[in-house]
Q: What sequence folds into this?
């Protein structure tokens, strides 16, 4: 009887995720389940952002922190076949809702959120180069540059507002640049491993296209408690061509590519 309840709850999660996104969960290749979620390979060395973000931090962040989120979300959904066919993107809308069995609700919210957030975070970083260090990446690709100018007036205002948002996060959390359903941009913040896609937890449902991790594990080894210094360094290694592709994907409905990696 208990298993029937769990399966029914898991099916409700799948239905809720599909209804929030406006489509049924896509079948996995050859009908195989997506379980377990597998961590891809990082597409650049841990030292790629040196000296702005240090090698040791990136190694621990990717191979320890993110790996633990994968381990924990896989463990949480192991008894629930209906959850196992969902991508991490499809888990996001339902996070924090009663549709998730109570005994795994917190684990799904924290760890599926941790997986999604970190995949986006690492994908929008690029190696530190003389060119990026000189320009601070302010020469934006056309589409996302126009959207930023339309929403915020110019890049300088956007950068100031985003930096202030990242500094305002109390304790651990994230700052995001998101795209609403009407294509407009917004700056949002979330605590812990929450993100704006978690409508079940009361967030906007907007699609994140740029995010900065302001948990201390993202910067403490090099910057200690100097979060402003870390944020300023992070701007130099934002991969704006990738953010532009994220923006185009968000506005065209191809949202799964935002956190997909070539090796995944």
A:
């Amino acid at each position: 009887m208990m298993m029937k309840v769990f399966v029914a709850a898991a099916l409700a999660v799948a239905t809720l995720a599909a209804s929030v996104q406006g489509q049924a969960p896509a079948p996995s290749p050859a009908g195989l389940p997506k379980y377990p979620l597998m961590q891809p390979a990082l597409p650049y060395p841990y030292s790629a952002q040196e000296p702005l973000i240090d090698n040791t931090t990136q190694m621990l962040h990717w191979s320890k922190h993110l790996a633990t989120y994968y381990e924990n979300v896989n463990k949480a959904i192991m008894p629930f076949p209906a959850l196992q066919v969902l991508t991490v993107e499809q888990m996001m809308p339902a996070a924090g809702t009663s549709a998730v069995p109570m005994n795994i609700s917190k684990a799904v919210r924290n760890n599926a959120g941790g997986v999604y957030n970190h995949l986006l975070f690492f994908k929008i970083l690029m190696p530190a180069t003389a060119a990026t260090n000189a320009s601070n990446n302010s020469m934006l690709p056309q589409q996302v540059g126009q959207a930023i100018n339309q929403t915020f007036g110019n890049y300088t205002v956007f950068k100031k507002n985003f930096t202030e948002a990242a500094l305002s996060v109390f304790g651990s959390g994230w700052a995001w640049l998101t795209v609403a359903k009407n294509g407009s941009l917004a700056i949002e913040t979330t605590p812990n491993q929450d993100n704006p896609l978690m409508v079940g937890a009361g967030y906007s449902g907007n699609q994140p296209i740029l995010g900065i991790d302001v948990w201390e594990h993202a910067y403490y080894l090099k910057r200690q408690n100097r979060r402003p210094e870390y944020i300023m360094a992070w701007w130099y290694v934002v991969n704006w061509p990738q953010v532009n592709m994220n923006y185009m994907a968000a506005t065209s409905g191809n949202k799964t590519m935002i956190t997909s990696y070539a090796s995944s």
